[in-house]
Design brief:
By secondary structure, the chain is mostly helical. The radius of gyration is 17 Å and the shape is elongated. β1 and β2 form a beta hairpin. The two termini are 18 Å apart. It has two domains: 69 residues, Serine Threonine Protein Phosphatase 5, Tetratricopeptide repeat, CATH 1.25.40; 32 residues. 53% of the residues lie in helices and 7% in strands.
């Protein structure tokens, strides 16, 4: 995959790999991607695939980790003003901070490093 590939594309491909070749292949696919381009969203999906394979205690711990990362992602802003840097979970046409029109854009991957 190209380096600039968005994680949403990778997650869709991971689902396709899972449907065609099984969980193990999807896990390997995600591991390869996340090694090159760490992503919290990708990590949540990897954990979702790993949890059914784990024993009860490890599975519970992985579930807790997955829920925690998921909560962190839900709290992160999804949009940012290209002019002043204002961040929000909501899309605004007029930036509430700098009052510039059409400057707030989606943050492509809120869970990337």
């Amino acid at each position: 995959l190209p380096d600039e590939t968005d994680v949403s594309v990778v997650l869709a491909l991971s689902e396709l790999v899972k449907n065609r070749a099984g969980n193990e292949a999807a896990i390997e696919f995600l591991n390869n991607y996340l090694t090159k381009k760490p992503s919290l969203t990708g990590l949540v999906e990897l954990l979702r695939l790993q949890i059914p394979k784990a024993d009860a205690e490890v599975g519970n711990n992985l579930s807790l980790l997955q829920e925690t990362v998921d909560q962190v992602l839900r709290k992160k802003p999804a949009y940012q003003c290209n002019h002043c840097g204002y961040e929000s979970r909501n899309l605004y046409w007029l930036c509430p901070s700098c009052k510039k029109w059409d400057k707030i854009k989606p943050i492509m991957e809120v869970g990337s490093f």
